[in-house]
Amino acid sequence: MAPLLNPYLTFDGNARQAMEYYKEVFGGELSLHTFGEIGGSAGEEFADNVMHAMLTTPDGFTLMGSDGPPGMEYASGNNFAVSLSGEEEDTLRRYWEKLSDGGQVSVPLERQMWGDVFGMCTDRFGVPWMVDISPREG
After folding, report:
1. Which residues form the Glyoxalase/fosfomycin resistance/dioxygenase domain (predicted)?
2. Which long-range contacts (CB under 8 A, 24 or more apart) does 24-31 make?
């Protein structure tokens, strides 16, 4: 599968409602995972907040989103990122190296608790990026 580029929206505790609304608007399949399902140190107050949501529509759109993680202040302007994802590890690592060069890495590109290799950075122009490398299937 070729790498995918799509928007990733961050919400202030209402990601579930927003993503369900977008499903009504665009149709498709919506998957939601909460901080409580994933585990970690989010705490009880964030257990029901959405850690990751993905809407895949019949028209080929992919929209991702989540509630801001604990400790990250929500403000208009920091509520989006561009997400690159897929199984093409060499390609995605090459994108990561170029995007993070001269920028600021907030999450190093490394294996995460859900099994993917994931990283977050802001490029030299102030654009936030997320790179997620999924294990190849089969």
Report:
1. 6-131
2. 26/55, 26/57, 26/59, 26/61, 26/63, 27/57, 27/58, 28/55, 28/56, 28/57, 28/58, 28/61, 29/55, 29/56, 30/54, 30/55
